[in-house]
């Protein structure tokens, strides 16, 4: 009876609205149109730069030419179909909109504009949560650790990424509220399963999802765990189609309303175009931090320096963040100045880290880009301690 009523109602339909149509195939659209004899207009909405129809379970030979492609791609390419582009994003914090726009859209000659003011996206920035950079709702957590593979599904997980995510969620509960709206998004199903079990054991009601299963959805806060790392058990390789899939990256990075926490191996992530552009742009506003940042969250003792950055900030973290600008400045001027806040870290340790990182990143000693660095001045900013572990002058 109910099916008959629905069928009769559809027979009188004159306007069809197909939302999130990027994930709908052209065959689905054709099937609907054939069933609606009074149809006059069709409104299709979708983002061609996000995930399309899920075809991974089908042979590659069936992916094209059988009507299984996204209807959005088909319709946008037709000269007979009128289309317009929506450029205003009302979901994300304006800074997130700006960064995602650069990462995913501007490389195609398009862009996004924020439709929501910063004042309406302050859940994270106005909380007591110790962000690496004040008022920047992004945490880039660089965790280089060992990943492993499930023997049945061959999917991946990373135990240290799991631990880092649990620590981040715990900190969000402590600094904001146990009732805060957050979701953990995983690139790999095995990582998702491991995190779900971990949260269940802790008695926490945390939503853990895959990227593919969370398109068209949103959350106040997003913890995005990427799993891949340079260390591995067995021959798992260092790159992934998931990282090179720009559409998947765009979906993953654009779900957060108030704040985004990205957990991953930064150098591995840079193998993907969107990930690399996102990291480049985000690094203009905040620092890439390491596992030491989790210790800061647990300690609860957080201060900021005159630049608004969290202090103490480990030298390894800050040097990684500054390396790109250091190289470019040295090429331009033949010298550079690096400012860093390292709290009570021994000055000799800082110098050791700096020289070691230069050699590791460039393979050169004393020479970068064919130009010798004439002067390298290291300013230590922060509280000066006394004794053998104290900071000496620069």
From TrEMBL:
<dbReference type="GO" id="GO:0005524">
    <property type="term" value="F:ATP binding"/>
</dbReference>
<feature type="domain" description="DNA2/NAM7 helicase-like C-terminal">
    <location>
        <begin position="69"/>
        <end position="266"/>
    </location>
</feature>
<protein>
    <submittedName>
        <fullName>DNA2/NAM7 helicase-like C-terminal domain-containing protein</fullName>
    </submittedName>
</protein>
<dbReference type="InterPro" id="IPR041679">
    <property type="entry name" value="DNA2/NAM7-like_C"/>
</dbReference>
<keyword id="KW-0067">ATP-binding</keyword>
<dbReference type="InterPro" id="IPR027417">
    <property type="entry name" value="P-loop_NTPase"/>
</dbReference>
<dbReference type="InterPro" id="IPR050534">
    <property type="entry name" value="Coronavir_polyprotein_1ab"/>
</dbReference>
<dbReference type="Pfam" id="PF13087">
    <property type="entry name" value="AAA_12"/>
</dbReference>
<keyword id="KW-0378">Hydrolase</keyword>
<dbReference type="InterPro" id="IPR047187">
    <property type="entry name" value="SF1_C_Upf1"/>
</dbReference>
<dbReference type="GO" id="GO:0043139">
    <property type="term" value="F:5'-3' DNA helicase activity"/>
</dbReference>
<dbReference type="GO" id="GO:0016787">
    <property type="term" value="F:hydrolase activity"/>
</dbReference>
<keyword id="KW-0347">Helicase</keyword>
<keyword id="KW-0547">Nucleotide-binding</keyword>
């Amino acid at each position: 009876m109910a099916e008959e009523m629905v069928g009769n109602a559809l027979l009188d339909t004159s306007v069809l609205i197909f939302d999130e149509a990027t994930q709908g195939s052209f065959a689905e659209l054709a099937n609907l149109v054939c069933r609606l004899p009074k149809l006059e207009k069709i409104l299709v909405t979708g983002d061609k730069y996000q995930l399309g129809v899920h075809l991974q379970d089908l042979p590659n030979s069936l992916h094209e030419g059988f009507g299984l492609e996204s209807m959005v791609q088909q319709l946008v390419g037709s000269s007979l179909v009128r289309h317009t582009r929506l450029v205003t994003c009302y979901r994300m914090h304006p800074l997130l909109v700006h960064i995602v726009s650069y990462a995913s859209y501007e490389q195609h000659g398009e862009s996004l504009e924020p439709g929501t003011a910063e004042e309406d996206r302050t859940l994270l920035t106005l909380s007591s949560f110790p962000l690496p950079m004040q008022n920047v709702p992004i945490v880039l957590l660089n965790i280089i650790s060992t990943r492993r593979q499930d023997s049945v599904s061959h999917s991946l997980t990373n135990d240290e990424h799991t631990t880092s995510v649990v620590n981040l969620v715990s900190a969000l509960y402590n600094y904001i509220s146990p009732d805060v709206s957050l979701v953990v998004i995983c690139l790999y199903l095995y990582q998702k399963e491991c995190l779900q079990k971990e949260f269940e054991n802790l008695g926490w009601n945390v939503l853990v999802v895959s990227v593919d299963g969370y398109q068209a959805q949103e959350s106040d806060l997003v913890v995005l765990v990427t799993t891949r790392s340079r260390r591995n058990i067995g021959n798992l390789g260092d790159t992934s189609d998931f990282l090179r899939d720009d559409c998947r990256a765009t979906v993953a990075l654009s779900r957060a309303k108030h704040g985004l926490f990205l957990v991953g191996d930064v150098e591995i992530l840079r193998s993907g175009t969107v990930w690399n552009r996102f990291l480049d742009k985000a690094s203009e506003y905040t620092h890439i931090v390491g596992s030491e940042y989790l210790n800061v969250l647990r300690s609860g003792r957080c201060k900021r320096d005159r630049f608004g950055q969290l202090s103490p900030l480990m030298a390894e973290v800050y040097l990684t963040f500054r390396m790109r600008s250091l190289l470019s400045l040295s090429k331009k001027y033949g010298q550079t100045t690096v400012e860093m806040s390292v709290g009570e870290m021994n000055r000799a340790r800082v110098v050791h880290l700096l020289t070691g990182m230069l050699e590791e990143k460039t393979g050169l000693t004393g020479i970068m880009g064919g130009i010798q660095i004439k002067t390298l001045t290291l300013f230590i900013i922060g509280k000066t301690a006394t004794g053998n572990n104290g900071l000496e002058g620069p």
